[in-house]
Design brief:
- Keywords: Kinase, Transferase.
- Residues 8-234 form the MOFRL-associated domain.
- It is globular, with a radius of gyration of 22 Å.
- The protein has helices at 5-17, 21-24, 46-60, 97-110, 127-130, 140-153, 157-165, 174-178, 212-221, 228-233, 260-273, 289-305, 330-342, 375-384, 388-393, 397-404; strands spanning 37-42, 68-75, 85-90, 118-123, 183-189, 252-258, 277-280, 310-314, 348-354, 370-373, 407-408, 419-425.
- It is built from 16 helices and twelve strands.
- Strand 7 (277-280), helix 12 (289-305) and strand 8 (310-314) form a beta-alpha-beta unit.
- It folds into two domains: 5-13 and 261-425, MOFRL domain (glycerate kinase, domain 1, 3-Layer(aba) Sandwich), CATH 3.40.1480.10; 31-258, Glycerate kinase, MOFRL-like N-terminal domain (Rossmann fold, 3-Layer(aba) Sandwich), CATH 3.40.50.
- Helix 12 (289-305) packs parallel to helix 13.
């Protein structure tokens, strides 16, 4: 069998390239206002978006630098050089003190906006963790603890963000309320299934229709143990998010500039060009990683039995209910489940990766983006007597793929349009 790793990587790289700020942002940037451009950015691509905005306004339009200011809060290791917009590197997926300071400074700067200013809000996935501003009565440590519990619970991103929004001074429309004197334009790269603006970075500049009651129900659904202060906050009507028709949105516009579907389309085209029949399962998949992997493996094995040459591509954001004490993320767990499903066959290869360059992990820029598997994976597994089922039970995909040499290592990609998964058969 010929080496399919370059093709797998080309498919993944095409998805990333289709959503990079350097490629997509400038076409959506408006003309300068009478006053200042206040750029407020958050997420894994925040610094890259800020730098692209600077290049457009300072270099292409020759804007007076004094009229451009801002703060971009991004994940540790995802910063890039900027000139006028200050970059803050902060924790993700678990918030840290730097993110809290960045959020406080962001709210303070938004509050200085006047009617002549433009509040340019640039959002990518990861903004929810980067912008952490606990409501009164909640300590940073309490919110950090709740965030960890949510990430381990198996809750989907919309549920996680519903809880976050009701314990925050910046999410759920509150940033728009802080800067409502200005015109507000939010440009977002979507990292959530169905591209809901209220879910992307927990909707800091858009109305929120979820409620405190919804947040309480999610805590109960996943049987989360929370501090009394968190319970009290979720029962405090003053912590309700900003609803539609609020004056905060009178001059606010939200625009999606990149979607997971567009990146998945770019990935699928590479597979087609390589001669594969593409089975596109869509960009909005959710569910338990190993269960989704089992479904996709069954499709692949059926196609192989029929002698078809296919590429099964999918996006979305899978979850892992953590019961072990290993290391990994949804994409690695999906790939590990495929290893178990394909261990007795040949001619099937696969890759699963997060387009931001980090799948689970400890919040380091060196975290793996995911994993891939082919004949070399199985050879290494057999030679080292590795047990994929035991690794799955311990949620320890990283250790398994470190041993086989199959971690997908991309480093920060400076964008985020969710996961890309591909299985090549034949």
């Amino acid at each position: 069998m010929t080496d399919k790793r370059p093709l797998l990587r080309a498919i993944f790289d095409a998805a990333v390239a289709a959503a990079h700020p350097d490629v997509i942002l400038s076409a959506h940037l408006p003309a300068p206002p009478k006053g200042r451009i206040i750029c407020l950015a958050a997420g894994k691509g925040a610094a890259a978006m800020a730098a692209a905005a600077e290049a457009h306004y300072l270099d292409t339009l020759k804007l007076d630098p004094e009229r451009l200011t801002g703060i971009a809060t991004t994940r540790h290791g995802h910063g890039v050089p900027t000139r006028r917009i200050r970059v803050v590197e902060a924790g993700h997926p678990v918030p840290d003190e730097a993110g809290m300071k960045g959020a406080d400074d962001t709210l303070a700067l938004a509050a200085t906006a006047t009617a002549d200013d433009l509040l340019l809000v640039l959002i990518t996935g990861g903004g929810s963790a980067n912008w952490t501003a606990p409501v009164a009565g909640i300590t940073f440590q309490q919110k950090q603890q709740l965030n960890r519990a949510l990430l381990r619970s198996g809750a989907v991103i919309g549920e996680i963000n519903t809880v976050r929004k009701h314990l925050s001074r910046i999410k759920g429309g509150r940033l728009a309320r802080a800067g409502q004197k200005a015109e507000i334009l939010s440009l977002a790269i979507s990292d959530v299934p169905h591209d809901d603006p209220a879910v992307i970075a927990s909707g800091p500049t858009v109305p929120d229709t979820t409620t405190l009651a919804d947040a309480r129900a999610i805590v109960a659904k996943y049987k989360l143990t929370v501090d009394d202060a968190v319970t009290a906050a979720l029962n405090d009507a003053g912590n309700e998010s900003v609803k539609p028709n609020d004056p905060a949105f009178a001059r606010a516009t939200f625009k999606l500039i990149a979607r997971p579907k567009e990146s998945l389309d770019a990935a699928a085209q590479i597979a087609r060009d390589a001669g594969y029949e593409v089975i596109d399962l869509g960009a909005d998949l959710e569910g338990e990683a190993r269960e989704v992997a089992a479904e996709h493996a069954a499709m692949a094995l059926k196609a192989q039995a029929e002698g078809r040459k296919i590429a099964i591509v999918s996006g979305g954001e899978l979850t892992v209910t953590v019961t072990g004490n290993g290391r990994g993320g949804p994409n690695q767990e999906y790939a590990l489940a495929l290893v178990d499903a394909f261990k007795d066959t040949t001619g099937i290869v696969a890759l699963a990766g997060d387009t931001d360059g980090a799948d689970g992990g400890a919040g380091s820029a060196s975290d793996p983006a995911g994993a891939l598997l082919d004949a070399e994976t199985f050879a290494a597994m057999h030679a080292q007597k590795l047990d994929p089922i035991a690794s799955l039970k311990n949620n320890d995909a990283t250790t398994f793929f470190t041993a086989t040499g199959d971690l997908l290592q991309t480093g920060p990609t400076l964008t985020n349009v969710n996961d890309v998964r591909v299985i090549l058969v034949g």
